[in-house]
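A note from the maintainers: we've had questions about how concatenated examples are separated. There is no special marker in the raw files; a new sequence line simply starts the next protein. For clarity in this README we add a label.
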Amino acid sequence: MSVDLPTQPVTQDPAVAAHFFVRGTLVTDAAVRHRSRDLGVDFITPAMDLDQLISPRRELPPLLDVKVDTIIDFLVETGERLDLDSNPYMQEALERVVETNPLPRRVVENLYRGAPYLLQKNMLTAMIESNFANPAALDGWVSRTDVHGNTGAIRAFPPRMVHMLAGNSPAGCVSSIAQGALVKGVNIFKMPSSDPFTTVAVLRTMADIDPDHPVVRSMSAVYWRGGDESIERTLYRPQYIDKIAAWGGGPAIDNVIRYLGPGLQLVSFDPKTSISMLGKESFADTATIDSVAEQTAEDATLFNQEACLASRFVYAEGDRAGVEQYCAKLAERLSTDRETASAIAPPVPSEMREEIEMLQMMGGEYKVWGKFDGAGMVILSDDRVSFHPSGKTVNVVHVKSLDDAVPFVNVATQTIGMYPYERKTELRDRLASAGAQRVVRLGSAAKHVLGGPHDAMYSLQRFVHWMSDEDV
């Protein structure tokens, strides 16, 4: 069933070409014009063909009887071939992504160069071992006996999934592709308008290794405008899809929720906010202040503060003079070129600028460092500001004690960077009770222990369809 999207007709005006990859086949016709959300750049895709995209349930998943070790070997080989200097698909995707994505070219290139790391064997093995108490359930039926002597077997059966990919990290699709393969899923990747290119580049690399490989035949990457009922009211049905893994903003998640019901589940990586917590030890002397400011800037500028794990609020206890010295140094360090951040980000949004200008006029408890030019701003206050800082803007909240910061933590708090590091042990149980999902050393928000949970869950065990065969 072909579906014509209610978008602009294709004209001869220049637009970026974005291809589809459907169950091992590259689709290149230019049929539908779209516009990227962030930069307003037009791109042209093929028309959606749901008959081609959806595999009927009478067909067993292509990866069902492929061993996980074999899948890992194939992913590792894919990672080795993602080298930007030698992979023409990644090179082409880079040139196109920089036209639609707000991240600067240098940052996108760094992300591409880091993509092979996501497909290293130790990374993939850690994911499996941490998610499944008995990974053998992925490869077949595992017998079990209960306390009464009843016997049965379970299997982690491959799911039929839609992955709504995030648009703030062009290489993030590599992780989703790996996860979809490890659970042996039948995967549809909905590409974001800010990057309708990278996923197809990775899948084309896989197809060059073996076009008939079950991993390749289990993967599709397409684009449609989020919320388009002509697509979603047909696709988002339990006869076609088991799970929707959604990375995205609130409206995207709310839209998916409309379609949920028996047999169709949502695994939501919904919007999060990250913070930093600084003990009074942070302001002991100028050298410590400078070091803490640098570590804070490292966390706050990740993806130019577009990532969920980028710190936006800093809760600082200690002497006011030391905190102000820290704020001045932090503002200076925000304007530094980093691997995942540019010295100058997009300017502060106009609505937020008006809020900050109002605070400056109020004076008193509010002090502001920096300008509205994208180089970074720091706002010092006694109470948390009411708006959501962005554009490399950090709100430093002066508190009497870190105990006073705990009430600001909730279920939307993803990562908390802590200094001094020893304070983590003191506070982590209370932070978890408040809803936080991760506490790390300040400056290491982007570093992870292999195989750890994400957003307070082990997602792979939620992706699979747990099937039980019981003899009672």
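[label: protein 2]
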Amino acid sequence: MPGMADPRFERAVIALCVHDENGAIGIGIGHKRAGIGFRGLLKQLDIDPGEAPDGAVHHGGPVEPGRGFVLHSTDWGGQDTLHVTSGSEPLFAMTGTIDVLRAIAEGRGPAKWIVALGYAGWGEHQLDEEMTRHGWFAAAGRERILFDTPTDERWGESFKAEGIDPRLLTSETGVA
């Protein structure tokens, strides 16, 4: 996000998965983890990578950075899969259990997926308060940006999809 005071969230793209009266959970999808790919992660977990492609592992957020999450298409569901919707329309699903990793490695997983380590979490009403400050921008969830846009282009594409040219953004604000 432009001008974000916390450098961990500079130009961050966060897929918001839960936002209710108890708080919010989001998975960062705008930055890749250095030094590890999907097949390497599978090997660390003693899962045979099989024919799984070697995709990026994303920096999901600063909370529990060793905990994994898979954001995926809704054509697969497993143990503890959470379906994320916009109104009544399904957007994507989130699974934080190892069964989805095994399914992907075995070629029976979701058609589209993103792997991330860690998450961003907010307590009760905390995200609502943060959203009133400079540096945050809420964009509609779009499957195309989540699954079909390269990681380093998701930040700019999120603005463009809302009709905003990100090159015209400034990190400074004023008071009227």
